Amino acid sequence: MLTSRAVTRTRPRQLLSSFLVLASTCLAQDRVVEFSERNSRFLFEEGAIIRGDTTAKKLALVFTGDEFADGAETILRVLKQEGLKASFFFTGRFYRNPAFRSAIQQLKRDGHYLGAHSNEHLLYCDWTRREKLLVSREKFEDDLNRNYVEMQAFGISKNNAPFFVPPFEWYNQSISNWTARMGLRLINFTPGTLSNADYTTPEMKNYLSSEAIMDHIKEYEARDPAGLNGFILLIHIGVAPERTDKFYDRLDDLIKWLRGNKYQMVRIDQLLKAIPQRSEVRGQKTEVRGQKSRFSIYRLTFLIGHFEQKAVRFRTAHEFKTMS
Q: Given this structure, which CATH class describes domain 41-280+296-323?
């Protein structure tokens, strides 16, 4: 894991070197990011939307949950206090947990977006060989349908909750295609800020403190010419008890900082309301349309952030295999 201090030490020479390696990998694979034909302001990875309109100072706060919900009370209170609507994606296991029922009901009453995150939090594809599927299409569809069955108990259907965040936030093009064929839309967090590392615990090699995560968010915002425009900023609604430094306790600080920088925080369906038609990357040639230059400053910044997120992925893969 690249901590705040480690990232500082590696720049500029080592980070530039790392970026060049990543850039060559991206070009070789021809499948990392696609700019939509109908709306070049949306970003895709492996068929999933990972960022909205980069020209508007809007972003979506997205919370995912499976086993834990210790941050629900704090998050509900802060969002209500600040008059904000956010988006929450839970597994079927989360929706059917009696201990979480009142929190889910309150989220719905407060007008937040409630969506799917799989039923049993399956790992869809290999951590290191992303193209290698670990589930069949039948298994994938059955699991996701079961997630929506649990959501129906709260009056939530596919029609009013078509956006889906994959478990482990890890997927590939096949998963994106299968999701679309179910009439749903796969989305994922925008890489670069490392906000999704808020689940890490001190014994993990990829551990990041809440202060380090906040620093990463601010650093990314400062170096990306588009700031956090269109961002899908992911945080967990609960984490393992071994992590006592809870990032959701910094939610109030985060919101105040975002507002101080003139960002409007909206629900995911509002952020992506001008969504283009589904775009498929078939692994042959990624087309960048509506752009005069292949490597603008914006794309360079995005790929640097993407590289830093890959460092998290490799660490996560190691931790996952260690726990298995």
A: alpha beta
